[in-house]
C-alpha cells in the first residue's frame, strides 16, 4: 500500500534521530508447554521504542503480545537475544518502566492511597504521600484516596492502576490491554483522558506501548502499530494522523483496513504497484527544491550520509529533515538503512542527470509513487478538457485531512507535478491543468 521501503531490522522510520528508550535485539522466548513440549512464542524479534512515541502491539490472541511487553519490562528474561534500556543491557526489571494491567492488579486490602503508594517503596513518607496524592489527582480519583478497590467501579479501579504506575514517574509506560475489562463508554472515557494527559505533557512519561487486540483502539492511540504473528513482527503501520482522531474520517478507516489486512496475512507494506489512497497515504510535505538540496548533499558525501551528521552540518535538528527524507524515500530517490540515508540509482541519476532528464525521472517516480499526484493525474486525464478546479480536489481531501492539511497536501502535489511537467496550475482561477 505504501511505497516506502521500511528498514527490515529497525521498525522505526518516523523516529530517526529520536532517542531509543527500549531496544529489543533478536529476542526469542520459548516456554515449556504441556508435557515439556517447547513453545516458541517470540522468534528473533527486533524492535525499538523511541522517545516521544506511542506504539500499539496488535495481534491475535496467543501470538505473544503480553510476552513481548513483559520482556520489555524485564519481568521475563528472554531465552534468546537481548534487551537494552537507554543503551544499557537490561538485567532484571527494566529501570524507568511502569506497567498497567488489564486486571488492574490492585491489592484488595489496601486503599487507593495504599495501592498507589506501593509504587514508591523506599521513598520517604512525606514525599511518598505527596507524590501519591498528585498521581491520584492526575487520574481524577481525588476524593477516593481512602476507598478500597471493592468500593470502586471498574473504571475507577483502572484509574487507580494508572495512578500506581504514573506515581513512579516512569520513562516508559507499558500497558497490557488496560481498557479491555471495562465497558465501552468507560473505556472510551479513560482512553480519551489518557491521550489528553499525554498530549498536554501532564506526566513525565516519554513513551508508551500498549498491547491490544482492538484495531480501532490501536489506530486511535498509536503513532506506530506493530502487528505480531508467527513469532515475529508481521508488519508495521505508521499513523500520521493528528489527535484527537476522527473515527469517521476515511483515512481512519483506511488505516483500520490496512491493519486488518496485515493481521489476516495480506502484505500491506512494500506494494510497489499501488501507492494507495491519497487520503491514507499523506505526502510528506517537502518542496522539490528541498528534496533536490538533500539529494545533492548526500551525493556529495559519497551517496550515503548519517542523518544526525547531516542535520548537524546543516544546523538543523534531525527531525527538521524528516519530511524531506520521507519524501525522498517515498519517491524512491533514497532509502534508509537505520539512520543512514542512501541515494538509490534513480536518486543518483536524478541529481546528476541534468535538468530535462532529471525532470523526466522525477515525473515517472512521482506518478508511480506519490498517491495524490497519481490521483490528480488520473482525475485530470478523465475530465473533459484535462482541467479541474482545486476546489474539487480540496473537497475530496477534506474527507481525510483538516482544511489546512488538505491545502498543504494539494500544494505539495502541485509543486511536484509542476516540476515534473506533469501538470500546470492556473493560480488566477485555481484550475489544475494536465500538461500538454
Ligand atoms: N509462563 C508461561 N509458560 C508457558 N506458556 C506461556 C507462558 N506465558 C505465556 N505462555 C504461552 O505463550 C503464548 C503467548 O502468550 P501471550 O500471553 O504472550 O499472548 P497474547 O498475544 O498476549 O495473548 P492474549 O491476547 O490472549 O492475551 C500462549 O500460548 C501462552 O499460553
Layout of strands and helices, then pairs:
Elements lengths: L19 E13 L5 E13 L3 E6 L5 H9 L6 E6 L2 E2 L7 E5 L10 H7 L6 H14 L15 H13 L5 E5 L7 H17 L6 E6 L2 H7 L2 E6 L2 E7 L11 H14 L24 H13 L3 E3 H8 L3 H14 L2 E4 L2 E4 L1 H8 L2 H15 L1 H12 L4 E3 H8 L5 H17 L3 E4 L4 E4 L2
Parallel strand pairs: 3-8, 3-9, 6-7, 7-8
Antiparallel strand pairs: 1-2, 1-4, 4-5, 9-10, 11-13, 12-13, 14-16, 15-16
Helix pairs in contact: 2-3, 2-4, 3-4, 6-7, 8-10, 9-10, 11-12, 12-13, 14-15
Adenosine-5'-triphosphate binds next to β2 and α1.
Pfam families: AAA_assoc_C, ABC_tran
Keywords: ATP-binding, Nucleotide-binding, Transport
GO molecular function: ATP binding; ATP hydrolysis activity
- N→C terminal distance: 30 Å
Please give the CATH class of the largest domain. Alpha Beta
- Identify the strand order in the major beta sheet: 6-7-8-3-9-10
Tally of strands: 16
The CATH topology of the largest domain turns out to be: Rossmann fold
Backbone CA Rg: 24 Å
Q: Would you identify the CATH H-level superfamily of the largest domain?
A: P-loop containing nucleotide triphosphate hydrolases
Q: Tell me the helix content.
A: 40-55%
Shape: elongated
The share of residues in extended strands comes to: 15-25%
Bound molecules: adenosine-5'-triphosphate
Give the rounded overall mean pLDDT: 86
Low-confidence stretches: 1-17, 267-273
- Domain module count: 2
- The computed structural class is alpha/beta
Reported for the largest beta sheet, the result is: 6 strands, mixed
- Number of H- or I-type helical stretches: 15
CATH second-level architecture of the largest domain: 3-Layer(aba) Sandwich
